[in-house]
# Entry
Amino acid sequence: MATILSFEEQYNLLTGRIFMYITRFLNQNFKAAGIDITKEQWTVLAVLWQQDGISQQAIADETGRDKPSTTRLLDNLEKLGYIERRPDNTDRRINNIHLTRAGINSEKRIMKAVEETFTMLSAGISDKEKETIRKVFNTIYKNLEK
# Structure
């Protein structure tokens, strides 16, 4: 059976080349909009905008990162004033991560830059094609879970 994707296309997909370019593009758009975070930091904020006050481990699990990487992201977000760590009420060994006022207030501005980036990246892609991409990624995720 012949493959639809060339070796180069398979290589680019498996090495994450397109995702690397998307990350670079989003970071450039953040910078152009005067937003002082990276795509990786945004993924943490996005989790907290959905559920503030969760543990570092929950953030690591949700973003698919290991604990040391998550710690570095949280350290930098704390230095920037977007988050703060607070001891858990039931287990003082655990710090829960909370958005600061700056973290809460930054959501609309950051998400506007994200939406503008997605609009630029998806120009010329029909809604039907976007739905196909969504289905393909969901299938890949399910295959990875096996």
About this structure: The mean pLDDT is 92.
